[in-house]
Amino acid sequence: MSKVLMKGNEAIGEAAIKAGCRYFFGYPITPQSELPEYLSRRLPQVGGVYLQAESEVAAINMVYGAASTGARVMTSSSSPGISLKQEGISYLAGSELPCVIVNIMRGGPGLGGIQPSQSDYFQATKGGGHGDYRLLVLAPASVQEIVDLVKEGFDLAEKYRIPVMILGDGILGQMMEPVDLGSERTLEAGEKPWAVTGKMGRTKNIINSLYLDPEKLEKHNRHLERKYQEIKAKETRSESYLTDDAEIVVAAYGMIARVAKAAVDMAREEGIKAGVFRPITLWPYPEKELNQATVQAKAVLTVEMSLGQMVEDVRLSLNGRLPVEFYGRVGGMVPTARAIYEEIKRLAKTYGEVK
């Protein structure tokens, strides 16, 4: 299929339709509003339902209802809106309901600003809401990867009965790139025996996260933990760029990883052996892959559009094996390739490659 030029937010919507999503519940907030606007036109054309809820809280609970029936359903928002949805997200995780949640991040805390940011990393990867739960978190770095990961996100959500979050920043949502949307998915009916679709002679299905008996709640939590361990073992994703001989490895995700590649190219022209490690799954974090990408490294530089959040997972993954330093910008300021290159050069001098 030939490629089409699409804005990131709109590509998310079309990818969801291609993946079989027919229900969207949301509420507008910059910088993701083009996504619900796009789906308000497209979903009725394919027999789907688009509903702008009265609030983010209402929207996420509509997702709960649609997911309970086994339907492919999605919601989207941006940072403060995702905060409002956290209670419902915890309920979805506790009830093991599959869905896709898109967060196109803006600066914070509070209302912050509408410029790009990566300051919701903790919120996405550490649970965010109440209770001992996890989301599977995917971080695309291009509009094409948005399309691919939205489709994969729906499949993973159903495979593990877990909410999947697509975590991007305002740059990804607003930028336009050529994409191959691929073909539309045909879903087979009757593959979700847990769904609430009418009793029809079988034992009734109950969708719930309320367990007043402590022993039953502990059993449920242990079951969730086993599922999370299976996901950690099987579903890590990452990309490495020029890391085979790299002595300085830059760890970055999303759009910033693309900026970091430009910085690494500048460093290589100066004879500095540098590379980039990009986690695609932020949870589970690709610990083994990061260690493999840093076998030759003398130091790791983590670059983020935050005051330092993913850097904690980088340090935990390396477990003291290498020094880890941090460079970040906030407030909607995007780290430049030149600035990252200067940090690489500083680390190369500090850790012994460049005299």
From TrEMBL:
Q: Which NCBIfam families match?
A: PRK07119.1
Q: Which UniProt keywords apply?
A: Oxidoreductase
Identify the residues that the record assigns to the Pyruvate:ferredoxin oxidoreductase core domain, covering every copy: 246-339
Domain named Pyruvate flavodoxin/ferredoxin oxidoreductase pyrimidine binding: which ranges? 14-201
Quote the Pfam families the UniProt record gives: PFOR_II, POR_N
GO MF entry, a single one: oxidoreductase activity
Its organism's taxonomic lineage begins at: Bacteria, Bacillati, Bacillota, Clostridia, Eubacteriales
Question: What organism is this sequence from?
Answer: Thermanaerosceptrum fracticalcis
Q: What is this protein called?
A: 3-methyl-2-oxobutanoate dehydrogenase subunit VorB
